[in-house]
Amino acid sequence: MSYLVLVRHGESTWNAVNAWTGLTDISLDEKGYQVAKQNGEILKNINFDISFTSSLRRAQQTLTEIKKTIIRGDLPVIENPALNERDYGDLTGKNKQDVEKEYGEEQYQKWRRSWDCPVPNGETLKDVYERVVPYYEQNILPEIEKEKNVLVVAHGNSLRALVKFLENISDSEIPNLEIAVGEIYIYQMDKTGKIISKEIKKP
Q: For the segment 103-162, what is each residue's pLDDT rounded down to a tens digit?
């Protein structure tokens, strides 16, 4: 048995102003750092063997704060753009409320949560799934098969894509899944990568 723990990064400066961030490399704000420390406090009882994160600063900063809090500066970190946030294309940097007012709630929700509704010049959640899941199968699952405890710190949509795969959530149900800033999913896994138990924690 091993742990697979998924953490969405803490609040960034663009989260704070309700802007679509996507691939823009934005830092955590002060609240985000505090949430990351709280994440670490929640995870102190798990002895991690390896960690994975995206190539974006806000996820890396969250992981660094967690490592400091659990006193694991030696924890190996693997960074990869496969775990990056969804590319929001032409919506990047725009205020979400402004977009909803301009295009209406239905279109806004399709862009924000749907499985395969394309954002202009950006990615769908399906596109994110098609990069996250192969990366998981090739790099993270082998660690679980070796009964290692794995920490993944990433983004709302890269984690939604991974949870869809792990929990076999249907295309029609995935719009209902939202992973909040700083939220933690703690899975206990068997050696084949099957979920034994799941717990969600919020700092």
A: 999 999 999 989 999 899 999 999 999 999 999 999 999 999 999 999 999 999 999 999
- Residues of the chain with pLDDT > 90: what percent? 99
Give me the CATH number covering residue 28. Answer: 3.40.50.1240
Q: What are phi and psi of 180, to 5 degrees?
A: -75, 160
Dump strand ranges (E) for 45-194: 50-53, 77-79, 150-154, 184-189
Reported as type and span, the H/E element at residue 5 is strand 2-8
Q: Which of 9, 11, 123, 155 is catalytic?
A: 9
Longest distance between any two alpha carbons in the chain, whole Å: 50
Specify whether the CB–CB gap between 48 and 7 falls below 8 A: no
As a whole number of Å, the CA-based R_g of the chain is 16
**Helices (DSSP H) in 87-155: which residue ranges?**
96-103, 105-113, 125-135, 141-145
Task: For residue 199, give the 3-state DSSP assignment.
Answer: strand
What confidence score (pLDDT) does residue 27 get? 97
Of residues 11, 85, 123, 183, which has the active-site annotation?
85
* Domain ranges, residue 12: 2-201
Tell me whether residue 85 is one of the annotated catalytic residues.
yes
Give me the number of domains the chain comprises. 1
Q: Is 9 a catalytic residue?
A: yes
